Amino acid sequence: xxxxxxxxxxxxxxxxxxxxxxxxxxxxxxxxxxxxxxxxxxxxxxxxxxxxxxxxxxxxxxxxxxxxxxxxxxxxxxxxxxxxxxxxxxxxxxxxxxxxxxxxxxxxxxxxxxxxxxxxxxxxxxxxxxxxxxxxxxxxxxxxxxx
Length: 147
Prior knowledge:
- This protein is mostly helical.
- Helices cover 50% and strands 3% of the residues.
- Helix 3 (50-66) runs antiparallel to helix 4.
- The radius of gyration is 15 Å and the shape is globular.
């Protein structure tokens, strides 16, 4: 049995990533989906970042999954997918394509009638912040001034 590849850098994630995004990923990867979405609420409200809004919706889908609310899971994955589509394939160090695939898979599970209570084998995803996926012109990089 082989080990998964190591993260490109240790958590907490270093610069150049905005602090709210680093904290979001840290909490999301700890499966603290509610708190992860709360971390981005302030920055999203301040600057109306569509990307942050999409991540909030994505985390919210997993909050609904933890609460075994199938309708909420499907609705939030759908909203997250729509919100994040324009950021693919990658944005602010996040593999948005992978997130979109996860949203689509969740939507398919809900549509198939498989309730969240039977999703035990569906492992929560991990997000990685990858410097090579930064464009460098993302407004969220500029001192908390998201687009």
